[in-house]
């Protein structure tokens, strides 16, 4: 795995204290957390340091605030409050400190005095301005920004405010620092080279990274030599010229400060000074407030009106088709009819122009393929079969062609004679739409701002089928289409308008025949709006689980659906005899017992006696496992119905998703509750609430308090089990979400989340707007600040141990297992097997060990570690077991590891699952062996029970074991010129197996 890709490169003091105290007092109004006395931090993870010109003071960034302390060490004084989200301080010669701040949703440069006075914002706008460095004379600040299309080195003149760009696109520069004479600036390009630039733009390359290494934190050292950090597998060294100066430490990779031959730097959680061949630590103490989490109870669905209405479309004569309860439904004449049987995954219907046929995707042949259903006769047959997945189809205006997206994000146009690729692989594109004359196909696609940071805006990508030209259009300046799913663009039937959702409401813009805007977008709705479809000159859409219709002047009416569901009945009472049982708490197994199950719950666990309805006397019963971090619908259309089977086949009876396309999520949750879909319990949220830029298709770019209210309304009315705030959401909006939410919240941040009242953090050190993490270093280590904050706040930690793939080097049995081979889609299994065959790297193994040791420190300190995998970015189900095995290999006992996948996530959810005891839901995995002695035995599942419903593994495999597959594939015709990959960001979603991305 490419570690650099994972990291993506890498008021007054009194007023700040008042602000911090105020935020502590008011952080929550819903009673979910309580104030704590505070945590004193004596170490910092990925902290940077700067020294004043007179050598008397140090400034550091710790838990996203700027602090100052005496140069000899001592108690630190905080200069910035939580909302400032400030990092990377740089002292000027007059004692002012420059830093970067994310306060308004983009990175901007600020200065503040050493005494905490004179806070001043220096840059503004929708571009990021990062990593400031004062010039030696204090008249200028060097920084990097994406304001010119890639990250370049810029200089800000403080007197005039003028900004000069010194490097040209397509550089992705980072962390500029000045030479002592102020004539040159040194910086890193893409972690691969160290270069300098003069104020007149003259460039020079000084260092090129050795093979397998990355470069960070360049600075000018003695004699003008380049100083930098070299990160290799398992080591991070501070180098001067070509000579390692600091080795055997976890050097954090920020610019060191040289004074002759002495050097000030940060490593191993500490500020260090090396001089005369010896190194000493500069101690610090900094106290931050935290709020202790109080767990809330997750609710189970009991039935009622269907809200999981996915991808509605409207025919020319007013019929509406949609997916619900694991089947395609048709609303016509006020009556709702189920069209498919729901055994497999049937999704994304679209009407032919005359309204007599439906095209949709179904995995009944084993993989998602296009099918055409004649609504008059009921005839249903394959259409233009292909070797891979075919998803999100749309009929052309003349009804002779269908546009669709495959498993790699490539868009195709198919007809009765063949298939033609019209785009390169795209990263999670939206559903296609056709212009009225059939000459243009458009869809939502992400366009990043730079290579260095992958986030961008979701724009309209248009393909001219005549010329093969591919072009991007912003829906509005610096704005994103809400999600790259069903939120547009959608051409009107007459081709004169395009509709899309931006900032949670619908907009319509006039266009020409090719889809080019001919006017300004106009807002149509003011309520939460999703999944747009045209009905003549009106829009049909979803609003919090209800179908609505609006005229273009904003007059909205309800569309009655009259569709409801009820929870599946629990099976009758049965007695299961097991050879041994672990109840989720005990130190050892209890032998030869009966588990009595009634009404879906455990009634009794007793010594075996009399008749047993199920003989599992050769097996060991353990609580069903819980995977607390996955994204069911990140590849849900490609995996289809088999995904629920694979979770169960490996003994996972509950999954939690901290981010999924909302209506697909709600639909799946309702289908599982109703028993129309086989799978584990499913607790989830919809799209994560993000900020000004996005990457994944299931993120909601949220730019204001008003829009945040709409997003929270959607969450509450659709009954989210949790809310996730994502990486570009400013702290102010994150705090507002905590105050207003009724459900648990999680994010990628530990602090100030631990003082806002957040319930958890995902991953060990996830995608972060900084480009690196304040919870784990580049070597995968965490220090006292991180461990103590997790333990004292009670926030959960979900490790998602991606590097557990390193264990393939010693055991690839899970990749060879029949359950994996049969239940994974063919292309997924092929990639997974290749990965297992390649074995693990030493870099992955070293990072994995450090990650596990971090999680173990939190766990044994009394913190809440919950097992999760980020599947399908890691493999569904098998990755759960790889995570457990990695935990045990590097320090957890088997029992401790199992507790992270049973009792702990059950506690997070507030549910009585994760245990086999009277009153608990009967969620049980029946395995061969003793997992308390050998954690590998937890994967030896033979039967599994969810709410008393018993599934045998052969039965779960049966629907897919003998699939005939796709026959009579339509030929692939010559691709359009637009299918050529000319942009670096055009890649399939699976191409970067990125650690900790969600």
UniProtKB/TrEMBL annotation:
GO terms for molecular function: hydrolase activity, acting on carbon-nitrogen (but not peptide) bonds. InterPro entries: 6-blade_b-propeller_TolB-like, Amidohydro-rel, Metal-dep_hydrolase_composite, Metal_Hydrolase, TAT_signal, WD40. Pfam families: Amidohydro_1 (PF01979), PD40 (PF07676). Residues 621-949 form the Amidohydrolase-related domain. Belongs to the TolB family. This is WD40-like Beta Propeller Repeat. It comes from Lentzea xinjiangensis. The lineage of its organism: Bacteria, Bacillati, Actinomycetota, Actinomycetes, Pseudonocardiales.
């Amino acid at each position: 795995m490419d570690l650099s890709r994972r990291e993506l490169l890498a008021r007054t003091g009194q007023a700040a204290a008042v602000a911090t105290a105020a935020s502590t007092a008011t952080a929550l109004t819903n009673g979910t957390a309580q104030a704590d006395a505070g945590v004193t931090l004596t170490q910092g993870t990925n902290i940077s340091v700067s020294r004043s010109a007179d050598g008397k003071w140090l400034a550091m960034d710790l838990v996203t605030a700027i602090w100052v302390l005496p140069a000899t060490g001592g108690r630190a004084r905080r200069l910035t409050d939580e909302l400032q989200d400030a990092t990377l301080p740089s002292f000027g010669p007059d004692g002012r400190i420059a830093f970067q701040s994310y306060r308004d949703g983009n990175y901007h440069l600020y200065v503040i005095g050493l005494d905490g006075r004179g806070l001043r914002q220096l840059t503004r706008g929708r571009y990021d301005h990062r990593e400031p460095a004062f010039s030696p004379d204090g008249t200028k600040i060097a920084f990097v920004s994406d304001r010119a299309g890639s990250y370049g080195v810029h200089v800000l003149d403080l007197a005039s405010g003028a900004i000069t760009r010194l490097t040209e696109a397509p550089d992705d520069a980072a962390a500029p620092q000045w030479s002592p004479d102020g004539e040159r600036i040194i910086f890193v390009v893409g972690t691969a080279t160290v270069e300098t630039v003069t104020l007149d733009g003259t460039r020079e390359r000084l260092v090129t990274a050795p093979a397998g290494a990355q470069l960070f934190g360049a600075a000018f050292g003695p004699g003008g030599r380049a100083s930098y950090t070299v990160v290799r597998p398992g080591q991070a060294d501070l180098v001067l010229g070509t000579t390692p100066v600091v080795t055997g430490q976890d050097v954090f990779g920020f610019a060191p400060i040289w004074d002759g031959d002495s050097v000030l730097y940060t490593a191993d959680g500490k500020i260090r000074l090396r001089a005369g061949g010896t190194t000493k630590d500069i101690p610090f103490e900094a106290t931050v407030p935290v709020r202790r989490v109080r767990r809330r109870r997750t609710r189970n669905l009991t039935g009622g009106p269907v809200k999981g209405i996915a991808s509605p479309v409207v025919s020319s004569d007013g019929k509406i088709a949609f997916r619900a309860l694991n089947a395609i439904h048709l609303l016509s004449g006020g009556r709702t009819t189920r069209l498919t049987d729901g055994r497999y995954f049937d999704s994304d219907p679209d009407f032919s122009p005359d309204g007599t046929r439906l095209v949709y995707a179904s995995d009944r042949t084993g993989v998602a393929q296009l099918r055409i259903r004649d609504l008059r006769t009921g005839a249903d047959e394959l259409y233009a079969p292909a070797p891979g997945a075919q998803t999100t189809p749309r009929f052309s205006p003349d009804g002779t062609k269908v546009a669709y997206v495959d498993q790699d994000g490539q868009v195709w146009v198919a007809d009765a004679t063949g298939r033609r690729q019209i785009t390169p692989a795209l990263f999670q594109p939206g559903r296609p739409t056709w212009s009225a004359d059939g000459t243009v196909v458009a869809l939502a696609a992400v366009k990043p701002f730079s290579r260095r940071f992958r986030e961008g805006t979701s724009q309209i990508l248009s393909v001219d089928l005549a010329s093969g030209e591919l072009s991007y259009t912003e829906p509005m300046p610096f704005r994103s289409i809400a999600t790259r799913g069903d939120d547009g663009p959608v051409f009107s039937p007459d081709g004169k308008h395009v509709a899309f959702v931006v900032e949670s409401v619908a907009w319509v813009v006039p266009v020409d025949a090719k889809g080019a805007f001919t006017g300004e977008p106009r807002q149509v709705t003011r309520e939460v709006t999703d999944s747009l479809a045209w009905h003549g000159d009106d829009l049909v859409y979803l609003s919090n689980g209800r179908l609505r219709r609006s005229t273009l002047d904003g007059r909205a009416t309800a569309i009655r659906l009259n569709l409801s569901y009820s929870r599946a009945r629990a099976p009758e009472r049965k007695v299961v005899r097991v050879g041994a049982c672990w109840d989720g708490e005990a130190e050892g197994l209890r032998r030869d017992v009966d588990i009595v199950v009634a009404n879906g719950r455990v009634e009794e666990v007793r010594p075996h006696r009399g008749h047993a309805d199920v003989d599992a006397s050769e097996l060991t019963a353990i609580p069903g496992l819980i995977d607390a971090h996955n994204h069911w619908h990140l590849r849900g259309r490609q995996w289809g119905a088999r995904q629920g089977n694979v979770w169960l086949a490996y003994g996972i009876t509950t999954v939690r998703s901290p981010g999924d396309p909302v209506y697909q999520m709600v639909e799946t949750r309702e289908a599982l509750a109703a028993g129309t879909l086989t799978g584990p319990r499913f607790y989830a949220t919809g799209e994560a609430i993000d900020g000004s830029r996005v990457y994944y298709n299931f993120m909601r770019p949220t730019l204001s308090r008003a829009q945040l209210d709409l997003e929270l309304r959607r969450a509450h009315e659709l009954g989210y089990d949790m809310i996730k705030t994502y990486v570009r959401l400013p702290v102010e909006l994150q705090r507002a979400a905590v105050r207003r939410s009724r459900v648990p919240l999680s994010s990628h941040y530990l602090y100030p989340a631990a003082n806002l009242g957040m319930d958890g953090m995902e991953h060990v050190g996830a995608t972060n707007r900084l480009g690196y993490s304040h919870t784990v270093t580049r070597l995968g280590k965490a220090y006292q600040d991180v461990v103590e904050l997790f333990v004292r706040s009670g926030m959960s930690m979900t490790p998602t141990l991606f590097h557990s793939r390193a264990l393939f080097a010693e055991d690839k049995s899970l990749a060879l297992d029949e359950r994996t081979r049969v239940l994974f889609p063919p292309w997924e299994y092929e990639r997974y097997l290749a990965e297992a065959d390649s074995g693990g790297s030493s870099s992955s193994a070293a990072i994995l060990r450090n990650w596990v040791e971090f999680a173990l420190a939190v766990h044994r300190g009394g913190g809440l570690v919950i097992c999760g995998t980020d599947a399908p970015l890691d493999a569904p189900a098998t990755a759960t077991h790889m995570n457990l095995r990695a935990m045990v290999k590097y320090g957890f006992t088997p029992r401790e590891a199992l507790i992270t996948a049973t009792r702990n996530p059950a506690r997070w959810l507030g549910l009585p699952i994760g245990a086999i005891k009277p009153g608990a839901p009967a969620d049980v995995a029946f395995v061969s062996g003793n997992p308390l002695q050998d954690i590998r035995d937890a994967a030896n599942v033979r039967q599994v029970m969810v709410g008393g419903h018993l599934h045998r593994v052969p039965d779960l495999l049966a629907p897919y074991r003998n699939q005939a597959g796709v026959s009579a594939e339509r030929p692939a015709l010559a691709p359009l010129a637009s299918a050529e990959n000319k942009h670096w960001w055009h890649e399939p979603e699976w191409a970067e197996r990125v650690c900790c991305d969600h």
